[in-house]
């Protein structure tokens, strides 16, 4: 959610890839077979009472029905910026900022109320208010991504995905109210630790696997999995955030060049269309980075990064276990017919992999396990950021472009 050194927008990536096409013409391209096995297909779906990991298939069926209903008819909120009191800035992004706020409207809307256990009084939830400047979003041609982010987020409901509270807009800005995740970004914690041990990395990875399983069930490709977009809650569990590049494609393909360079799958760089498999590739990069402290494809020369990705060239660290190396190689597989998550058994091949053998998926889903690290929520776990008032306008800027927000 905060600003960081990685490239985050389509335009930034596009500028860095200006020279890629001539280089790619010199490479020997592998003809990709784009396949996607939705959750519930293959032999693992033969048991109708549960999906792999002991989570009831009825749970996922109900989740799909609820999502479809909310996605088709997004809620409308009657709120304005002055309904909120600013507590502190949390960070800045490419075309907006995030602030911690609380609602001071009287009465407080039901969906923002929380009851004080000590005296039973009602107060406002602590909220992370994402403020998107219309002019900046339009300048960077991000209108579709911004509208998609709001529409998808407001329909999601999963333990490891940030909770949406509300959205509204005014003449100059768009606003999204999200739950406040006090532990801050995984990126910052990983930087402080340099790297995680395998047990800790596996704990986080298991939650991301379940979140991707949920998203892919709904037909959504995430496209921006990285430590900066993973927050740690007060109990030490992961919350996936920043759905600016998420898109509902169902069984189709996407062609837009977007994401973060070091996490891009080969099929995105080659521009031949892609599906949910890009998220499994990014999962492989993330698992490597959590365990090693750096990307498997990092290079000072951006073009060399893309060359390494296209050829799936990386070197496991000497301290990686055999099972860790195997799961990373299975996810960072440029042949889509052999990539974990895309074969006949779908995501079950990831969940049943030897590296995840000791994971109790149901206990993870229910958040019953003690986290290996719990953040100190009394500390400021967000980078220092300057507070500034949102832009104002006497006319409704880009009304047509953001009419569906």
TrEMBL record:
GO cellular component assignments: cAMP-dependent protein kinase complex; cytosol; nucleus
Q: What is the official name of this protein in its record?
A: Uncharacterized protein
Recorded hits in InterPro entries, A to Z, give: AGC-kinase_C, Kinase-like_dom_sf, Prot_kinase_dom, Ser/Thr_kinase_AS
| Compositionally biased region (Low complexity) | 40-56
Region annotated Disordered sits at 36-56
* Domain AGC-kinase C-terminal, residue spans: 357-405
Phylogenetic placement of the source organism: Eukaryota, Metazoa, Spiralia, Gnathifera, Rotifera
Per UniProt, the keywords (alphabetical) are: ATP-binding, Kinase, Nucleotide-binding, Serine/threonine-protein kinase, Transferase
Pfam families linked: Pkinase
